């Protein structure tokens, strides 16, 4: 579904990504882990079109994504949930969800998607008329994810969904993401610093360090790797 080949990108004269290659298959749950400053967020921004690459290619369902305007990429079925949630705090919960349903597919399936969202996140149904800024941090993260789901995506890209959340709230977010993936078959690409959780749930993982993919494999392969165990799992 998503094929990234020898991708390099950065900000001005500052390089961040160096010949990154990774692939996400349809229906797969893939995770990208690594330390702060490794380039994980830059990678997502490059896929979304916020950052322009200096070399390499990105293909989505066989299509050259770099030939597609950034604003049009969501219409292809890519939903990017950025770090820090970035909801619209002055709008209601329902209005935030409506903002997410601006894609052609999202508009067609609005009622069906809303029912699914309320099943996955009942609190968003209960607080539909509340201002989004009045929600707790965990509820705001649920809203950010739900807003992406309202677009009827084929690929859900989640950037640090546990950031800034209490452990209990972060655990709940992970459980919801896994439930959504398992019940819908939606392809998920997750960037996360909680390495143990990310690799536990992911079908396949990539380790990004200093802008380069240094390891890749199934969750069993990565969790049994001594380097991963020592550097990220505290074992």
Strand segment tally: 10
Lateral arrangement of strands in the main beta sheet: 6-7-8-3-9-10
- Which percent range describes the beta-strand content? 25-35%
Helices and strands, in N-to-C order? EEEHEEHEHHHHHEHEHEEHH
Helix content: 40-55%
Q: From the alpha carbons, calculate the radius of gyration and give it in angstroms.
A: 17 Å
Overall SS class: alpha/beta
- N→C terminal distance: 34 Å
Kindly report the average pLDDT value: 94
Taking the sheet with the most strands, its summary is: 6 strands, mixed
Could you list the spans in which at least 5 consecutive residues all have pLDDT below 50?
none
Helix tally equals 11
Description of the molecule:
- By secondary structure, this protein is an alpha/beta fold.
- The protein contains eleven helices and ten strands.
- Strands 6-7-8-3-9-10 form a six-stranded mixed β-sheet, with helices on both faces. Strands 2-1-4-5 form a four-stranded antiparallel β-sheet, with helices on one face.
- It is globular.
Summarize this, please?
40% of the residues lie in helices and 27% in strands.
Features:
10 strands, 4-stranded antiparallel sheet, 235 residues, globular, alpha/beta, 6-stranded mixed sheet
Compile the SSE list and pairings.
Layout: E1 2-11, E2 14-24, E3 29-33, H1 40-48, E4 53-60, E5 63-64, H2 70-76, E6 78-81, H3 93-100, H4 104-108, H5 110-120, H6 122-126, H7 137-149, E7 155-159, H8 167-184, E8 187-191, H9 195-201, E9 204-209, E10 212-218, H10 219-223, H11 226-231
Parallel strand pairs: 3-8, 3-9, 6-7, 7-8
Antiparallel strand pairs: 1-2, 1-4, 4-5, 9-10
Helix pairs in contact: 3-7, 7-8
């Amino acid at each position: 579904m998503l094929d990234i080949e020898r991708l390099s990108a950065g900000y001005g004269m500052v390089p961040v990504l160096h010949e990154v290659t990774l692939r996400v298959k349809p229906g797969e749950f893939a995770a990208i882990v690594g330390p702060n400053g490794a380039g994980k967020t830059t990678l997502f921004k490059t896929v979304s079109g916020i950052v322009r690459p200096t070399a390499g290619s990105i293909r989505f369902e066989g299509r050259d994504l770099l030939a597609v305007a950034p604003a049009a990429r969501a219409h292809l079925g890519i939903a990017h949930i950025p770090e820090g949630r970035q909801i619209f705090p002055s709008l209601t919960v329902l209005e935030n969800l409506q903002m997410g349903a601006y894609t052609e597919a999202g508009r067609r399936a609005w009622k069906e998607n809303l029912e699914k969202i309320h099943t996955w996140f009942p609190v968003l149904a209960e607080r539909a008329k509340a201002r989004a800024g009045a929600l707790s941090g965990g509820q705001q993260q649920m809203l950010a994810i739900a807003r992406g789901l309202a677009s009827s995506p084929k690929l859900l890209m989640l950037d640090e969904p546990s950031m800034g959340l209490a452990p209990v709230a972060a655990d709940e977010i992970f459980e919801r993401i896994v439930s959504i993936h398992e019940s819908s078959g939606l392809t998920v690409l997750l960037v996360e610093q909680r390495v143990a959780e990310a690799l536990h749930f992911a079908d396949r993982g990539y380790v990004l360090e200093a802008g380069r993919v240094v390891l890749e494999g199934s969750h069993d392969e990565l969790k049994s790797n001594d380097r991963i165990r020592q550097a990220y799992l505290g074992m």
